[in-house]
Automatic annotation (TrEMBL):
InterPro entries: CLCR, VWF_A, vWFA_dom_sf, YfbK_C. The lineage of its organism: Eukaryota, Metazoa, Porifera, Demospongiae, Heteroscleromorpha. SMART domains: VWA (SM00327). It comes from Geodia barretti (Barrett's horny sponge). Coiled coil: none annotated. Transmembrane segments: none annotated. Gene3D superfamilies: von Willebrand factor, type A domain (3.40.50.410). Pfam families: VWA, YfbK_C. It comes from the Eukaryota. Residues 31-221 form the VWFA domain. This is Uncharacterized protein YfbK.
Amino acid sequence: MYSKHPLEGNKYIARVGIQAPDLQDDSRPLNVTLVLDASGSMADGNRIDIARQAAESIRQSLRPQDSIAVVHFSDVVLNGLTVRHTSPGDAGILRSIQRLQPGGATNVQAGLNQGVQLADDARRRRPDAINYVILMSDGVANVDATNPFAILETVGDSNNQNPLRLVTIGVGIANYNDYLLEQLAQHGNGWYRYLDNVQQAQTTFSEANWLNLAIPFADQTRAQVSWDPSMVRTWRIVGYENRVAADVLFTQDRKEFAEIPSGTATTVFYELELTDQVFQRQASTAKFGDIEIRWVEPGSGASREQYGVVSGHWRQEFDTLGDPLLKLGVVVALAADRYSGLPYSGYVGYSDVNWELSDLQRRLRLLQGQLGHLTAYQDFTLILDHMTRFVPPEPPRPSESGYSP
């Protein structure tokens, strides 16, 4: 997809996406280890309720051939609530999930250490199983290691043929460490999801959705787009700052590259400045570059690669795009990009960011009739309202006297 940039008239927006096939008929058993944050910060709002519902939904979605274990932690592991791997219907598992309650400090390292130990024991007993360690937390680690890389040093896994896949499930808004949870998943060979409410927890891990999420199609996945310099003068990825890797690393199989679950899609938006040659063309569809995708096949560990062409219709105005979900995706990506670039030191750029967020807010309202029934649309409308209010058109400047007020 290519369209005129909604914020910058001299640029274009390009969407590049990859889609994993659906592998729901995969019969390999699963070993799932739930690591549940029972610290005091989980008492805020409905965090405990969300985590408890997510854990129970996963338990209910598991098949008879799967196994599950539960670990609770606050400042230490709550051994009285630990249940080693057993069948999903085991009464002890259900009781442990139901007894999740907040209290104490947050020792993510201790919880994950115990969870990894249980998961490794299960993997040794069933080497043919897919293994997940699922951390549910607000990420507010404040005991022992609090840095994601320090935590991963103690829970690292060197088995690349059948890895322990660290999945992180985030809950909460205020006092929430998104960075910790995202980095743990990225470098733990897993994936990260954020849950806003109990219903979302139930839907995300319903049986139909879980079967897709739990079956990996590709490990250590990365893509590289090579833009044709005769067509594209400049380009920039919107977001994904901590996923960008040096060219020399692209051909290497590395754990921090992404896991792609079965049936899922990954989308990247680019800002492009096109060359004069493009505008001299009569055809409205053109090839703009090539894409190379590399990944590791789960189970066998074999390296795979695939090549494709990046092409599309480039004369499309953003407002005339027919897909409202595509428009929503562009608005979300650009809003996050502009907000993350806010100049926190100094005041230059505040008015520009405010104008751009306000314009994206206007475009989002135009999608109300088509997308207003979607929870995702409603949630992001609220988020964008807060973002726009946080960035005043003209922020107060420091006193000219040189003295604090």
